[in-house]
Amino acid sequence: MGAEELARDLLGRYLVRVWEDGENAGSGRSVLMITETEAYLGHPDRASHAYAGHRSPRNESLYLPGGHWYVYFIYGMYYCLNLVAGDQSNGEAVLIRAGVAVENAPRMEANRRAAARTRKTADADKRTTPRPIDLAGGPGKLCQALKVDKAFDGLACNHKLLYLAEGMPVSDESRVLRSARVGIDYAGEAKHWPLRFRLRNA
């Protein structure tokens, strides 16, 4: 499945984070429903880390077979979680941009608060518990909530600590909003491609 098709298919699916012993009191896992994704089409896509066949230690996981996680670090503070798509030759992937809590939101809220303290940003002391709707309302927030970092880069998407579940697949196209991707003004014509998928009213 290519990245564009996968990005649409992931809406409504569950992203499950299993907590190792000692990390969590109560439920041993947290679950998000994926509500927003973006497709990156590899070699022909100027917004992709694999544009024009670029390959480096940072993006090596993009060239794994579809079904592996690709995690990268941006702005010196945020991780982003991607699912590799297609075959090994093109470097396609889907950025998982946002989700809403389905199970064990308190654990994810605690992770977000801990991340804010660690960053020691100017407004860290003013932060309150994130509202459930904003718990994972962006790719960096999502990774903070699930404690996803480079340790997951290159792992299969059925890994015991971070995996996809069927969830609630969306068949009603009227619930899906499609638009251009965000934050890629450098990407020339590719910045206009309608490769961002969102669940309406999620």
How would a crystallographer describe the biggest sheet?
9 strands, antiparallel
Q: Number of helical segments? A: 3
Question: Would you identify the CATH H-level superfamily?
Answer: Methylpurine-DNA glycosylase (MPG)
What's the CATH topology label?
Answer: 3-methyladenine DNA Glycosylase, Chain A
CATH class: Alpha Beta
Distance between the termini: 25 Å
Helix fraction by DSSP (H/I, runs of at least 4):
10-25%
Stretches where pLDDT is under 50 for at least 5 consecutive residues are: none
Report the mean per-residue pLDDT as an integer: 91
Q: Please indicate the count of domains.
A: 1
What proportion strand? 25-35%
Question: What CATH architecture do you see?
Answer: Roll
Taken in chain order, the helices and strands follow as HEEEEEHHEEEE
Computed CA radius of gyration, to the nearest angstrom: 16 Å
Q: Using DSSP, what is the number of strands?
A: 9
In terms of structural class, how would the helical and strand content be classed?
alpha+beta
What does this structure look like?
With 202 residues, this protein is α+β, with helices and mostly antiparallel strands. It has a single domain, classed as 3-methyladenine DNA Glycosylase, Chain A. It has helices spanning 3-9, 105-119, 139-146, and strands at 14-18, 29-40, 69-74, 78-84, 93-103, 158-159, 162-165, 176-179, 196-199. β4 and β5 form a beta hairpin. α2 (105-119) packs across α3.
Concise account of the structure shown:
With 202 residues, this protein is α+β, with helices and mostly antiparallel strands. It is built from three helices and nine strands. Strands 1, 2, 3, 4, 5, 6, 7, 8 and 9 form a nine-stranded antiparallel sheet that branches.
